[in-house]
Structure formats: structure tokens, C-alpha cells
């Protein structure tokens, strides 16, 4: 069995919460793992996200991600279906988007995407960010990068992984702390996030611009 941090990674054919049958591991990061799974109650494919670290801070961060996503409704954002903690760990059940992320697609191409296509995606993401930033309190994603973007079957772009996201009120209360314990991606993170001096909606715009310049 593979392990990450303190939690065992799930193997195919593992039944979680008496409902979700794991098909395969589709993504893994410093804080969690994401699986393709089948909802046996509704007979549909879902994305099952699992925390792979055990601590009070990671548990709160994961719960916060679930709460943030649960109240959001936008075509460029994943829908939350379920959230639970049981004997197997802490889980978030989300809408599943098949296919590879934008970073993988870019690597497959071996060259940048056409400018017109990148600009169309940027427009979609700007509308999604406007929606996030206009929430009360506003939501800052703080981890925009090609690895967190996927294309739907209709060619629309979707922004995933809100593990680093925070509401504006949380950010104000933590502005003097020395950065997130969960890190960032230096190639796409703005200087204020790297230095731990506090992020705001402009930080997401910086990360989006950096993502578009590489795509």
C-alpha cells in the first residue's frame, strides 16, 4: 500500500462511506489526493478528494475548502456534492471532469496553445474570478496554475483545487503571518504570497497572467 504523510492512499475497488467506489488515483499533492470514483447510489462518476495529512490545521483547511465550494455556483467552478469524515479519513466529493489538466495538455503539445484560444480561456477565468471576488466576503483562490485548470467536453475551462483559497476576512486576520503552511507554486505565485505579507484579488490576477503567459 502507498502512503502519503499520515494517511493511507486508497486502492482501486475500495468502498468509501458505504457509497463511493474508488476507480483510480488521478491526482496527488502535498495535502491531499484525488480519485475518480463511482457513486453507487446515483450510478455516476465523481471526484473524491481525500486529506493525506493529519493535523488540526489541515483538517480546518479542508473543511474550509468544502464550505467555500459548497456555496459557489459558477460554470467554471466544480460543484460540491458531499463532505464527510469517517474511519477512513476526511473527504470532499465533487463534480468530476474527465481528461488531463492544462499542464499535461501543454506538455503533450510541445508548444504553446494558439493565442486566440488562450485569450478565450482567460476571459472565462476572469469571469469566474470576478464571481469569486464579488462574494461576501470575497474568495481568493491563491493557486491558479495550469495544473489546476481542466477543459470540459465542450472546450470550456474549469478552475479546480481550492485547497489554498481563503475568504477576504480570513486573509485580513492572517496578513501579518509568515505565509501559508501549505505553500504555493513559485512560478505562478505573486510576491506578496511568497513573502507572506497578505494576498487580495489582485494576487489571483497576477497568477492568471503568469498562467496565460506560459500556456
Describe this protein with a few key phrases.
alpha+beta, Phosphorylase Kinase, domain 1, 2 domains, six-stranded antiparallel sheet, two-stranded antiparallel ribbon, 6 helices
List the helices and strands and how they pair.
Layout: E1 3-4, E2 7-8, E3 15-16, E4 20-28, E5 32-39, E6 44-51, H1 56-70, E7 80-86, E8 89-95, H2 102-109, H3 115-133, E9 139-140, E10 149-151, E11 157-159, E12 166-167, H4 168-173, H5 191-195, H6 201-214
Antiparallel strand pairs: 1-2, 3-4, 4-5, 5-6, 6-8, 7-8, 9-12, 10-11
Helix pairs in contact: 3-6
Structure description:
The chain is an alpha+beta fold. Helices cover 31% and strands 26% of the residues. A six-stranded antiparallel beta sheet has the order 3-4-5-6-8-7, covered by helices on one side. The chain is globular and about 45 Å long. The termini are far apart.
Task: Please write the CATH class name of the largest domain.
Answer: Mainly Alpha
Question: How many strand elements?
Answer: 12
Please describe the biggest sheet, giving its number of strands, its sense, and whether it closes into a barrel: 6 strands, antiparallel
Mean pLDDT: 85
Q: What is the overall shape?
A: globular
Order of helices and strands: EEEEEEHEEHHEEEEHHH
| Strand order across the largest sheet | 3-4-5-6-8-7
Distance between the termini: 36 Å
Given helix and strand content, the structural type is alpha+beta
Helical content, roughly?
25-40%
Radius of gyration: 17 Å
Tally of domains: 2
Amino acid at each position: 500500500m502507498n502512503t502519503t504523510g499520515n494517511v493511507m492512499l486508497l486502492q482501486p475497488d475500495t468502498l468509501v462511506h458505504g457509497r463511493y467506489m474508488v476507480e483510480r488515483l488521478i491526482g496527488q499533492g502535498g495535502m491531499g489526493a484525488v480519485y475518480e470514483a463511482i457513486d453507487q447510489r446515483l450510478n455516476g462518476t465523481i471526484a473524491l478528494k481525500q486529506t493525506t495529512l493529519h493535523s488540526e490545521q489541515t483538517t480546518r483547511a479542508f473543511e474550509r475548502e468544502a464550505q467555500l465550494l459548497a456555496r459557489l455556483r459558477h460554470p467554471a467552478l466544480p460543484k460540491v456534492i458531499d463532505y464527510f469524515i469517517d474511519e477512513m479519513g476526511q473527504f470532499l466529493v465533487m463534480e468530476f471532469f474527465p481528461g488531463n489538466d492544462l499542464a499535461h495538455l501543454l506538455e503533450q503539445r510541445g508548444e504553446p496553445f494558439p493565442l486566440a484560444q488562450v485569450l478565450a480561456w482567460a476571459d472565462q477565468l476572469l469571469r469566474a474570478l470576478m464571481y469569486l471576488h464579488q462574494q461576501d466576503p470575497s474568495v481568493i483562490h491563491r493557486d491558479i496554475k495550469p495544473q489546476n485548470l481542466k477543459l470540459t467536453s465542450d472546450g470550456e475551462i474549469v478552475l479546480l483545487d481550492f485547497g489554498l483559497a481563503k475568504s477576504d476576512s480570513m486573509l485580513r486576520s492572517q496578513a501579518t503571518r509568515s505565509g501559508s503552511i501549505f505553500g504555493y507554486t513559485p512560478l505562478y505565485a505573486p510576491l506578496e504570497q511568497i513573502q507572506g505579507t497578505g494576498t487580495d484579488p489582485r494576487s489571483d490576477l497576477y497568477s492568471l497572467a503568469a498562467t496565460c503567459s506560459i500556456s
